[in-house]
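To whoever picks this up:

The nightly regression suite flagged TetR family transcriptional regulator as changed. Nothing in the input moved, so I suspect the structure step. Input below, exactly as stored in the fixture:
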Amino acid sequence: MVQRLIPGLTRDQIVAQAFVLVEDEGLDSLSMRKLAGRMNVQAAAIYWHISGKAELLGLMARDIYAAAYAGTHGAQDWREWLRQFGRALHSSLASHRDGARLCAIARPPSPADAEKQAAHIAAPLKALGLEASVALAHQAAVISFTLGWTMFEANGPMRDFLCEMMDFDATFTIGLESLVNGLPAK
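Regenerated output under the current build:
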């Protein structure tokens, strides 16, 4: 069967509209049918481009992480790169409603070669002197801290209460610095 694409409809447009829907209504409201309705197409038109909600979430998470990686510039050592990445990831997650929760539940958008993907993820830190396995572990630690912090921060009532006691941005920086400074070089 030959798949016929809807003229002008692209994966990037679908992902962008999914972010708009989540911004307006929250992650729990995201469905392929609702997204199609917002785009004035039948749900089947979206399925020509994206296999389902799981792939859509993966593509959205990919975009959030891509913005974080783009936020790393000119680091002279691996610790500075991790600090830059942590701050950029925090910013990218916080710029999307439910961004941290989305990234916590998303799967890779398509079957990918895990070894090739690991090499790609480790590359910036390998270039700064870390072994691949250490680079992956260190990024995982920063990602986990940042995801957890951003989800904690997004909890409106708790955040409001805690803001009376602390500066969230300053406390995030203290936590990120402590984490990165405590990571071993090997």
